Amino acid sequence: MKRILAVLGLVMLSCFGAIAQNRSITGVVADAENKGIVSATVKVKGKSISTITDSDGHFAVMVPSGKATLTVSSIGFASKSVDVTENENNITVILAISTQELGEVVVTSLGVKKQKRVLGYAVGQVKGDDLSKAKEINLGNALQGRVAGVNVSGTATGPAGSSRVVIRGATSASGSNQPLYVVDGIPIDNTQQGNAGKWGGADKGDGLSSFNPDDIASVSVMKGSAASALYGYRGSNGVILITTKRGKSGHGIGVEYTSNYTFEKVFKTTDWQYVYGSGDRGQKPANLADAQDLYNYSWGAKLDGSQVLSIDGLMHPYSAQKDNMKNFYNNGTTNSNTIALTGGDDKINYRFSLGNVENKAILHNAGFNRKNFTLALNATPNDKITLETNAQYVIEGATNRPFLSDSPKNANLSVYQLATNTDVRWLQPGVDANGFEANHFGGNIYSQTPYFATNYVKNFDRRNRFIGSSSITYNLNENIYAKGKLGIDHINYEYTDIEPTGIAYNPKGGMNVIQQTRYEYNAEGILGYKNTFFGDFEVNAFVGANRQHNRSKGISLSGSEFIVPFQYFYGNLKNKSSNENFAESEVNSLFGSADLGYKNLFFISLTGREDWFSTLSPKNNHTFYPSVSSSFIYSDAVKLPDWWSYGKLRAGWGNVGGALPDAYALVLTYNPVGQGYFGQPLVGTNGNTIPNGNLQPYNVRTIEFGTENSFFKNRLSLDVTWYNKTTTNDIADANVSISSGYNSTKINVGEISNKGIELQISGIPFKTDNFTWNTGFNMGYNESKVVKLSDELKSKTLADNRDGNAFIVLEEGQPFGIIKAYDYERNASGALVYNPDGTLRRGKLVTAGKGVAPYSLGFTNDLSYKSFRLSVLIDAKFGGDVFSSSNYLGYRLGLHKGTLEGREDGIPVSGVDVNGAPVNVTANAQDYWRAWARGQTSNFVYSSDFIKLRSVSLGYDFPKSMLGKSHIEGVNISFVARNLLSLYSKVPNVDPESNYQNGNEQGLERGGVPVTRSFGVNLNVKF
Amino acid sequence: MKNNLIKYLSAGLGCILVLTSCDNGFEDLNKNPNAYVTPDVNSVFSLSEVYMNGQDYENHRANLIYASAMVQHLGSFAYSGDKYAYSTEWSGAFFGSTYSNGIKETSQLLSTIPNTPENVNKRSAVRIMKAYLFHRLTDLYGDIPYFDAGKGYTGLILKPKYDKQQDIYTDLLKELDESAQALDASKPFFGSSDLFYSGDVAKWKKFSYSMMLRLGMRMSKVDPAKAQLWVGKAIAGGVFQSNADNVVLNHATGPDGVNRNPYTTPFLREDLQEGNGSTKLGKTFVDQLQNTSDPRLRIYARIESTGDNTPATQKGLPNGYTSGTITAHPSWTAAGIKAYSDPNTLTILRQDAPDIIMSYAEVQFLLAEAAVRGWDSGNAQTYYNNGVTTAMQMLTVYGNAVAPVSNVEVAAYLVANPFMTLGTTAAKLNQIGTQKWIVLFFNGLEAFAELRRTGYPTIIPVNFPGNLTGGTLPRRLIYDETERVNNTTNYNTAITQQGTDEFTTRVWWDKP
To answer: How crowded is residue B276: how many other Cβ atoms within 10 Å of its Cβ?
Structure first.
């Protein structure tokens, strides 16, 4: 650690040792309407000096004394070269809307900026503006609907939860399948801290909640293996490159203040039957014990308004309580503020920002907060040297992350289930006179009194995080440059959860404490070469080396039974246990890349990376990851009709890896068992997994073809990609006989295939002086297939729901993550088989759906009229399914409207029994529907298709004239909203995006926090 | 300018090179600092001893739920062994846990302790323990993985083949013989890490020969000649001489599960229910002790709900009943289930009760049988009397919360229940078998093996509706279900050579 700091310091210090004979050029880059272009790249020709314009299009750049040529480019505009005389210091560059995307610059792997036309593979791009409009706490969730082929799903836990971002389908049966995130060239940690499962648990968030969207300039998505090949063993799931905002020179100190305040409300509430109330077999509860035991049973009498003894022990009218969800959940609020200072002179520019987010969740006492301190410092002390430093310090914390899925500790589940005549507010405050969990549910100790869960069950976590990088680029001459870079992501994580005294299922309580420190540093050196030969051949190549070092150390404490009740600290626990964990590993890499261009119309790009792993057996510890890609600008090679402005073909192939085996997995180790035996230590082998010294990262190859075209002077653009991605050597658990002494070992045998199409259409249907309409449509279709799981296993269950009657399964020949559920029992001729009482019987497990939607779509519209701007994002997913436990329980508990049928007169049934004898009876509705639900659980596998009005922002830019001579340079006020409307959904009672798990086991809903709609105001002021 | 160039180059790239070039520690990084790579074998040996009689999980299932209920030491509404019903998880538990605990640790020990003359005692003791673990496995299931087993890491054998019980017995006896002969008091041993004998080589030798006696006698039906040979060899080698030679593992109430008695802990946790549980002392067991005025009854039995351990008021729960059908049984009273006897929580059911793994009394009964069969020249009655006497005396390990059996009581019992020197062979074997069955209380696995071999004492099988044996005593347990999936080929071969994987299939030594 000291070594890293020393090196960081060295690199930073060298920023100030600058000597130069340079001058600064400031200026503005604007479009034809004189509107500043944000994030345009301004490059000094022949030097590796460049800068990016700010949100007004201003820039400042160092150039050597004398004449200079600046190349200015921006996405969507034709790039332009501008000659600057020795006396010119301030210029204005007007860019024309691109007709050929000639100069568009894209950030690619290792932060290398390339002209888009060179690329032989698809790269998705998102502007920082689109992310900050979304104001999602988790950056991953903000990518939803933005990039074709990027499938985003969250968990039903509220805004502080994790996101699941899968690019072009899951590549591994056992890996996380989430991409590598790289911020300003530094790979960052995105560990999922915890996930709800069958028996409950909480989503404890991931690494993407640390970032302030106001600090982000752009995001590039490296989708395929050719695009991510330079990340070698980390490239299997694609790479998301995040570039933060930079400083700008001139104008003294620029100040930008952004404030956002939004409200969150429950988006969709349960719509149960409100005809019958609590009770059993058509009867109201007879006494308090009955009422409490039947707290979630709505099989009672018709609601008649009569006074009945209710679960709180008081008399209440026996009438419908339809607003339990509205009454239980608060209105959430999120307030975020960012203040950014930018400035600099001709040698140094900076941006410093402070960000703060305060979120109060819709669940009482739950929330999230974050403080960001961000610094970007760029210096060009002379014409040879460029220094870049980025640093972020983030303090973030969450309080009372909600427990999901099964009870106990899950407040949501109880609220869903309350009988139709019970008002959730009767259960306030959740404790009895002793401060113990109030018993409203009789003997159901695992059912959670919801207010006890929110008011007394506690957990909190806090993460302090430093992400920093420094780089120095030295241009030896026009052709050769050298670059060194050092970066670190250092995380300090604390977590505490408390099961309070008096919680019904564990009255003496308990607590867990986790402290974890981890970091990854990367040190990278690159030597680059670029030149043009014979006028037609361009070469742009580099070789480099990287060292990645990871270290993680933590302590976990857990214990049960508070010695003094209600005193919640670790020392007050009777039974304590503690554990220390540690892991350290390193990956060394050599890599190289060569782009060859011919006449700026044909390009071929080759990359290779060799990774050496400390965690693998020294005999077999390195792998080579190559790629080749090519692009051909056919619109420049052949004469196309005038309306066909631009045409490009591209092809790419790459080979990358994933899921590096953990540290220390090569040899069997031993640990003490317990605390000894009458003074003698006990030592035994660790674990039941046979260490496999030959395990390797799994392998992913993608081949992709695509074409980019634009028409009518770029008013319409079309980008289509076809890809075929194959995983081999996926890490699987081999079948091991327990008589070997072990029950598992990991081997490289699995195979998975993903094929798909991505389509991106963008256009400008209307454009007048005052009115512009930009529209974009993106769509990804991915067909996944589990080709092979292991030598013997044809199927593997990833997860099942609490009731054990719906399963997320990987099965050979099937798409990734199918949902299996039960069908009714049927006889040989396929007829339903009944019990003698007329109820249905459970039959076989059948494939009932897909947990992952193959289609994901986004439709963006940006309209501007004078000073008004309207941005609308509609997104959709199709083809997936979800198993809804809420609806299943709705039937089991008599809540679902479907259970109204036959309540008075029973349900006439005519069929056969197991022996083929006829059954002609009238079944009792309660028995019938309960068996109906349990029998065919595939009834509750719903299509999770949805179309949502995901994001709307309506803004007004106050004209300069209105601001007068004040120091204020610009003011924008916007109305913003997320999840405003569901335009299409087929799942009753819950939102189709109510999945409670973040991992590969997608498609189970149970007891999640309801999805919310948010709306509010965004204010942006520039001084 | 030239200087600057060098300066910046070294500042920028130099650091990276420094970092990337010092590659010495690269491989060392992967050495886990928080675990032993080379363990202290003494401590692994201690753990293996703790694992020898198994842990809570598998003992609850195999030993209590199946074996103890099948030999009618216990009666239960809920135990599968009470009704000869199959439960996947309960029947296979002992298989999986024995391999993944005891067999794994002892196999690792044999691969870790170098095979040098200095280590002869250590290796011999491990081999004896391993033989003990395997004989319990094979007696319960029949053909099992033996030669290939426990070698997932050391031999990369992921799917061990099943060996015939006959071949396993041959090797077990060879192992015991070699180990007993190799033990040498002049060589180093485990000392205080030996939780049984504190490193007493002579006692380990006696243990090995006593095990040889047990295993030799087990072949009495299937191969009497060989049985006689090994019984003779064992006696000549020197078996247990007194209760001081008993293999006893002491237990404590904590701090961890591993410290607690593995039979009593699950019973206390799940079955006792303050006397309201559905598992009780068996009627067969209580009746036997009551009918012979056995002074041990006050130590074994207690009505938990009242604390009464008066022998006369003890009442065993008959086997083969449910909470519904029991009400028709003459023993049922208004007091309900609470009135039936529980294992005594002051003595044998203490969480920290010692576990008698093998006793001198058992050895005496084996010798008595050998004498009856004419395989030993000793006096059967002497052996019998010794066995009964020491069986009563050995209960002092459970403490004196209940008055220990006095010498006067022993003498009175022997007067009232004398060895039938003039009886038929069958009557003698019945008498010996019955006494051994009492001695083996809470060692259901050994009691089940001996009951199958000898047929004594006479246990009337239950015939519960839907039972899997047609109302006959089960002859083995069904393998761990995971074997059908994870070791399919070898499993199929095993059932081809041994017979279907059912309770009714007899193991090799179990001849009708």
So the answer is: 11
